[in-house]
């Protein structure tokens, strides 16, 4: 039976590079018995913490929260992809996590951060968040260090496959770990 992994794109900036990284990562991690779907927070209608009740109560009044809850429940594990912003993670990703609670419990998660120095500080902060959500952190968590030479004048990858090639083996190991963990 095929297991489902949700790869959440945590940046919503108009000039973001995360969709390119996400498609590359999806291709590296996916396997015949492991489907990896891209969940782009830029296209998911998720207002900022607008529910009157605490997420742990699981009483959702708004259709946007109910839809997000159903989507998250449909996955067996998650990969969170996010850049480092001022040593932290993006607010839309934190909002997406904080909007729910029970839906995340026990679901394995990998953190894939990127930035000038791999997004280490953002990943460190996110580790505390997923621990609070009772999500088991996988051992394979990529930290992608960006180099200016990888990008064109518009700030987009000139060749994402070439740029991220040094991370391919680690990404494939993540796929193998997910397959083993979800078997």
TrEMBL record:
Enzyme Commission number: 1.-.-.-
A Pfam family reported for this protein in Swiss-Prot or TrEMBL: FMN_red
Superkingdom of source: Bacteria
Keywords: Oxidoreductase
Molecular functions per Gene Ontology: oxidoreductase activity
Domain NADPH-dependent FMN reductase-like: 4-140
Annotated InterPro entries: Flavoprotein-like_sf, FMN_Rdtase-like_dom, NAD(P)H-dep_reductase
Gene3D superfamilies on file: 3.40.50.360
Protein name: NADPH-dependent FMN reductase
Organism from which the protein derives: Levilactobacillus angrenensis
